[in-house]
Design brief:
The structure holds two protein chains of two kinds.
Chain A: H1 9-40, H2 50-58, H3 70-89, H4 94-114, H5 118-149, H6 154-158, H7 169-182, H8 211-235, H9 239-259, H10 265-290
Helix pairs in contact in A: 1-3, 1-8, 1-9, 2-8, 3-4, 3-8, 4-5, 5-7, 5-10, 7-8, 7-10, 8-9
Chain B: E1 9-14, H1 20-27, E2 41-42, E3 51-55, E4 58-59, H2 63-72, E5 78-82, H3 84-88, E6 98-100, E7 110-112, H4 119-147
Parallel strand pairs in B: 1-2, 1-3, 3-5, 5-7
Antiparallel strand pairs in B: 4-6
Classes of the chains: A mainly alpha, B alpha/beta.
Chain lengths: 291, 149
């Protein structure tokens, strides 16, 4: 049997570059986020490299587990999150990217259930609800991009002659709305109970300490880089405009994070689906009729 | 490396405090003092925390909680007793149900006296605790090397 796999050396270099650059970018953006958040609250805020100090510290700590296997799930969460971004940044299939992202999310949920703590359990259930809330919109985004560019491949969408946002303004609004869930920002930081909200201690991450928690943080950096890439895709092909608009969207998320109190899960689910239906689905219907 | 010193995460427990010291602990997080400048986060989860801040003396009801929180924290960890009640029991020392400071239950590394302890002295106590935290880490690493882990 002769299987011939042709991988372009450019793709390999791009993938390796992504492996190193994505967590650096994600970590720096998280650090900047913490500074801007502090300034919005009238505080000075931590150093820019604080997220890196945090993770390096976590690797100096002891690892306490309830069950040994719980950290294996976290490892798979990290691997599939990296895989998601890797597929995306090497110009892969958008549908595969989305399902890989979901799979990574499911591994985090499994880890939360596996740790068998009441807080972890509630956190994992809330994470499932969050996946339920954002997943339809993410799928509609892929469908919308396909309807405009006639391709699911990121590299084709990237090289489309006009920015896809011209055809997908509704989908973009819906996508930005669910970003609040994906970036774990208030009002929808339900499952990890980020920041000072401690009513379920730290939700899904409660039972993870030391290196395992470090892995969750690193996975989040990769996720942030992937999400920023996704926003970039809406505004491609002009890199300068796309990058600045992607950063502007992230700034908007910080403002939302600081301006809103935590919402209940019912609100998160209902409003996400409402936005998906009103902005996302109507955009699809419009494209369907207009094309 | 000494990243522990750059990112000390805190858990705060009120053993029997009158809330005077608790308010001062929380004041450290406000814009006036902003301990997040030094990477300090009030985590609320013992498994994420490096420093345990205890306010108030320990009584029969809170002793098991103090022990439990301490046991759940991953090594290396330090304990800072804040306020005069947490250093010795303070004015409640002679009460029938008060055992004394948290050092009767768990090892305490730093004592921050005061009634209530001022935010400046609490921050000072935490900074001193960082030195001890680093010592403990060095010892932990040495022990791990010795045992071949």
């Amino acid at each position: 049997m002769n299987i011939n796999i042709n991988i372009d050396p450019g793709t390999i270099i791009l993938a390796l570059f992504y492996l190193v650059a994505a967590p650096l970018f994600g970590g720096l953006l998280t650090g900047l986020d913490r500074i801007i958040t502090a300034r919005m609250q009238g505080r000075y805020g931590p150093p820019l490299f604080q997220p890196f100090y945090d993770v390096l510290k976590l690797y100096e700590k002891e690892s306490i587990v309830v069950r040994r296997s719980q950290n294996i799930y976290i490892l798979f969460f990290l691997i599939f999150t990296i895989f998601t971004g890797g597929l995306f940044f090497t110009g892969g299939d958008l549908l595969l990217v989305i399902f890989s992202l979901t799979l990574a999310g499911i591994f985090l949920v499994l880890a939360g259930f596996k740790a068998s703590s009441p807080y972890g359990h509630i956190g994992a259930e809330r994470e499932l609800i969050q996946i339920l809330a954002y997943e339809p919109m993410v799928l509609l985004t892929a469908a919308g991009m396909y309807m405009v560019t006639k391709s699911f491949f990121v590299k084709d969408i990237l090289n489309f002659n006009v920015p896809v946002i011209y055809y997908l303004p509704g989908i973009f609004i819906g996508f930005v709305y669910i970003l609040t869930i994906k970036l774990r920002k208030s009002p929808y930081d339900l499952s990890t109970s980020h920041h000072g909200h401690q009513e379920i201690v730290k939700g899904i991450t409660t039972e993870f300490s030391g290196p395992a928690l470090g892995m969750i943080e690193i996975a989040h950096w990769y996720e942030v880089a992937f999400i920023m890439g996704f926003i970039y895709l809406f505004f491609a092909p002009d890199p300068l405009i796309a990058v600045s608009l992607a950063l502007l969207v992230y700034f908007l998320e910080i403002v939302i994070d600081n301006a809103f109190a935590r919402a209940k899960w019912q609100v998160a689910l209902a409003s996400s689906w409402l936005f998906t239906l009103v902005f996302g689905f109507s955009n699809i219907v419009y494209l369907f009729i207009w094309k | 490396m000494a990243y522990l010193k750059k990112s000390p995460w805190i858990i705060h427990y009120d053993a029997t405090s009158c809330n005077g010291c608790d308010i001062e602990v929380l004041a450290c997080l406000t814009p006036m003092y902003d301990v997040e400048r030094f990477g300090v986060i009030n985590s609320g989860n013992p498994k994420h925390a490096d420093i345990l801040l205890i306010t108030g003396g320990v009584n029969e009801q809170s002793k098991s909680v103090v022990k439990n929180i301490y046991d759940q924290m991953p090594e290396p960890k330090v304990v800072v007793a804040i306020g005069i009640c947490a250093t010795s029991g303070g004015i409640f020392k002679e009460c029938y149900n008060v055992i004394g400071g948290p050092d009767k239950i768990i090892p305490v590394d730093i004592y921050v006296p005061g009634c209530a302890a001022r935010p400046e002295s609490i921050i000072d106590g935490v900074v001193k605790a960082l030195g001890i935290l680093e010592d403990k880490r060095t010892k932990m690493v040495a022990l791990q090397k010795k045992e071949g882990i």
